[in-house]
Amino acid sequence: MDIKDLRIKLMNEILNGIKVLKLFAWETSFMSKVLGIRKEELHQLRIFSYLQAAHILVMSSAPIIVSLATFGTYVSLGNTLTAPKAFVALALFQVLRFPLSMLANLLTNLIQALVSIKRLQKFLNMEELDPSHVERTGTSGINQERAAIQITSGTFSWESEDQPTLKSMNLKVKQGGLVAIVGHVGCGKSSLLSAMLGEIKKLEGHVYLQ
Q1: Going by C-beta distance under 8 Å and a sequence separation of 6 or more, which residues neighbour residue 87?
Q2: How far apart are CA 69 and CA 169, in angstroms?
């Protein structure tokens, strides 16, 4: 499931930035990344299919194996196997066949449920963003120049324990001004916008938003 999540994340990034990807002719590079992840995913799926086939084989042959083992053990202990005993035992084994075949599926679904619960628990236990990271200044402006957005010595990170994504940022956008944020992929354009909106953790500095 981790490999599947990695592939889905990469595909989402490709689809969201498809224009930039086509502009810089990065199709081959990203295609090789996707195919590499997909190859590993197919390897895991192949192993899962083999195990599932083995499980079906074992569960299909289980009634015969159990019957032979039970009757063989019963006779080896010196008992006499009669027709009534054999037919009653076979009927009991047939009744138990369906619950036993569903046991493996139950374990598989239980494991998937536990993984889903852990993911939900991790998401719900994530630290809430502090709304005070962005200071609202109202319509009067920050200073006499009426800056609409201002970042002073701002350091931001998506995770507290990670290296800062943006460090010592200083930005001032006057009210009514037009500012373009440009740069190569991964330089921090989206992180800067997230910092203005308070959607990324602020480690240092101040963010003022009118």
Answers
A1: none
A2: 75
Q: How far apart are CA 63 and CA 183, in angstroms?
A: 67
* CATH 1.20.120.80 for the 147-209 domain, yes or no: no
Tens of pLDDT, residues 126-147: 777 777 778 877 644 445 456 7
Helix extents (H) in 24-147: 27-76, 83-124
Read off the pTM: 0.47
Which tens digit of pLDDT belongs to each residue from 169-193? 888 888 888 888 887 777 888 888 8
The type of residue at 149 is I
Q: What are phi and psi of 16, to 5 degrees?
A: -70, -30
- The total number of residues shown for the chain amounts to 210
Q: Which DSSP helix (H) or strand (E) runs through 169?
A: strand 166-174
Strand, coil or helix: what is 170?
strand
